[in-house]
Amino acid sequence: MKVRILGCGTSSGVPRIGEGGWGRCDPAEARNRRLRSSILVETAGESILVDAGPDMREQLIAAGTATIDRVVITHDHADHCHGIDDLRQLAHNRDEPVTVYARADVLQRLEDRFRYLFHGTALYPPVAGAAVLEGEWQCGGVRVRFVDQPHGRITSVGMRFDEGGRSLGYAIDFHDVTPAMADLYVGVDVWIADALRRTPHPTHAHLDATIGWAREIGVKQLYLSHMDNSMDWATLAKELPSWAAPAFDGQEILL
């Protein structure tokens, strides 16, 4: 199983548009340049894209990926789904629609917002199929499970992948860890988790909270994601415990 960090930035990316866009991040450090958060998991001959933000085209070109088997949308905030139009090219490469999975309410809003993608037009066929995300998956030898995470007044979907005794958890856009989340992520080998900034935020995890939760649930290796421009890569790398590190765009992790 291989996971690629397509992007580990927050909704405005790093640098942000405008003066002072780098914030506290050193512009000379390439690992501080962050696209919107997304991962690509490849295993058992399948590729699973988690979220389709505005940078999806650039991210998939950089990854050298031309086809995707499944897309999971964790929630319908713009930075996680507004690149969905680029499924047109992925469907063209596959010569069939790409299936998009999401919770039922999120899927309905996506179909309403991007109706032409799911239902086609008079000139173009649909390029995306809609499937409600429920239960768990078995992809070859990989077990994939899901959990709903509190994200302000809504929820996002978290995921756990297990294959051959190795495990990966992906948890972004959450502000607290529920018992169901702790049960899902307990003891994972790799946990890619939200750590927006150092100070608390009403809808996102912050640095100390994420570190504390990772200790409590027995994470073996933590990678911080969904970081804003206050989170300098080199500074974090020096101060974090040995089992934790800031992620960076293009990073690939083999399990």
Automatic annotation (TrEMBL):
Keyword match Hydrolase: yes
Q: Which residues form the Metallo-beta-lactamase domain?
A: 35-226
Which GO terms fall under molecular function for this chain's record?
hydrolase activity
Write the record's keywords in alphabetical order, separated by commas. Hydrolase
InterPro entries from the xrefs? Metallo-B-lactamas, RibonucZ/Hydroxyglut_hydro
- PANTHER family recorded for this chain? HYDROLASE C777.06C-RELATED, HYDROLASE C777.06C-RELATED-RELATED
In Swiss-Prot or TrEMBL terms, this protein is called MBL fold metallo-hydrolase
Tell me the organism: Sphingomonas ginkgonis
